[in-house]
Amino acid sequence: MMLKALALNCTLKPDPEQTSSTDAMIAVLGKAFAKKGVALTETVRVAGLNIKSGVTSDEGDGDDWPALRAKILAHDIVIFGSPIWLGQISSVAKRVLERMDAFLGETDDHGRMPSYGRLAVTAIVGNEDGAHYACAQLFQALNDVGWTIPSIAACYWVGEAMGSTDFKDLTETPRIIAKTASMVAGNAAHLASLLKQSPYPG
């Protein structure tokens, strides 16, 4: 049974042609997932969409969230990518989380939110300390709105404090990053496969 993953790149750069360290980290995870039989179908540059502020699944004319929401829920795994800004996840990432708040009121007859049985992992990059805090922000919020977080679900890189090297500028992927990506992909693929066969009862 082929599993599908969708990546959300929550960089502040709206143009997909602009290079992004978050894209580079997502690519590392994409390769690791491919080796585990999971297809990364697309990386969405969220800042390039008109995701309106609000906490419903449709904020009216011109809102791109309904289409993105449908795309997200058509996948088994979401790779939630975010850079670290001011020690936190990006404002774009927070906007996505806020829109997922609607899941709380969209339960089925068994009390299951639309995200039930789907997994979320993170791809975090930054040039300062804060990766653990960024993951904590994402994991708590995503779990609140029904996502399953597998064991070892974070792949991150932070450069030297006050340094100027970005992840996308590295000449090769650090060994520990590749090792972690493989573990993230393996654990997520395993758990997603189990949940697909045996969904949460609610």
Describe the protein's architecture and organization:
The protein has 202 residues and is of the alpha/beta class. The protein has a single domain (3-197), classed as 3-Layer(aba) Sandwich (Rossmann fold), CATH 3.40.50.360. 35% of the residues lie in helices and 19% in strands. The chain is built from five helices and six strands; from the N terminus they run E-H-E-H-E-E-H-E-H-E-H. Strands 1, 2, 3, 4, 5 and 6 form a six-stranded mixed β-sheet that branches. Helix 1 (21-35) links the parallel strand 1 (3-9) and strand 2. Helix 1 (21-35) packs across helix 5. The protein is globular. The two termini are 23 Å apart.
How would you concisely characterize the structure shown here?
This protein has 202 residues and is an alpha/beta fold.
